[in-house]
Amino acid sequence: MFVDKAEIILKAGNGGHGGVSFRREKYVPMGGPDGGHGGHGGNIVFVADQGYRTLMEFKYKRKHKAENGENGTGGRSAGKSGEELIIKVPVGTLIKDKETGRVICDLSENGQSFRVAEGGRGGRGNMNFATPTRQAPRFAQGGIRGQERTVILELKLLADVGLIGFPNVGKSTLLSVVTKARPKIANYHFTTIVPNLGVVEWRNFSTFVIADIPGLIEGAHEGTGLGDQFLRHVERTKLLVHLLDASGSEGRDPIEDFHAINYELEKYNKKLAERVQIVALNKVDLILEDEGVEEIKGKLEALGYEVFIISAVTGRGLDQLMSRVVLLLDEIGEVEPIFDIEPVEETIYTPEFRNNQFTAEKIDDVFVVDGEFLDRLINSVNFEDLDSIGFFQRILKDKGVFTKLEEMGIKDGDFVRLREVEFEYYK
Asked: Which cell locations does it reside in (predicted)?
């Protein structure tokens, strides 16, 4: 089964909480704080692996979670960091953020990797909060949550040459002849339901990859017949070989077919339509005389295209066609990707909850404050310790929470709710 698109949910590991601990030794009755740091949460990294051919496994496993960091402990012992989660995907996988549609990375080379979800930092232990005036802090810093995001995986085949044309013009047959690929061949529309790849080694020239792109029909750029899915796979190709049924065996006009397919390419992506394209008039073995074929060839050449007369079944003209393909690939060289990839920093993720933004509203006589930084703050506080509560109040003041509540008209004795914590306000 070939799967070329999948949607998955990623959850990087949470950072471990800093430890709250004090030295307890026989001859050190007033030992200081020695709580260690929490471990960092595991990242989620995607790696391109040429041993993978489809995205099928992501149809069955949609949620992927990295390991959390462990909490810090006494003796200045830091918690263990969470293991990095490595997800292997086929070479040619494009990863997009579902929410924004932004391309995160393009894994186009074997072994290429990219960190797509970043684990949270571990919190600092209470030994980091000791001061000359606060020698026994009974609180530590909470760990930061790891990134959560939904991404779209799209597999774009890495073919140098794309075979395009209407169904049943002979693309699969040609592929089977010039490569060792063995695609299924039958006489009905959309015979090829997945793109077939083959490696061509022609007359001791350098090898190249050729893809039989499943048959296009009118309306493909709008999704008719799944054409939009198939068209994605020709985006990377350097050269398009356009096969036409010169025999008209299905009652279609080759020239009309030619314009129809190019119209679909133009509508789908103008850059794609500008790729170098040559034409192969196939199935001439079904024609008694070449006179009509020469007429078609002349019309296409008048439009500026190189045209080759071939028969994928008998082998006629294949040497000239493949030799020209080899030369053109060398002339064309590298091509600019058709899809746009936004530049990304090495660290692509800055969690929103690392900022100081918050919201406040009054619901049923309770002032409700919400903000991502509250999770970490609440995890940092021991609400049974006065020093820790003082630390909690000071952070809220520094963040501007109390100022905002006063602007909203809060009075002494009113209730404030922050996540699962609720308290009475007194200035």
From this structure: Cytoplasm
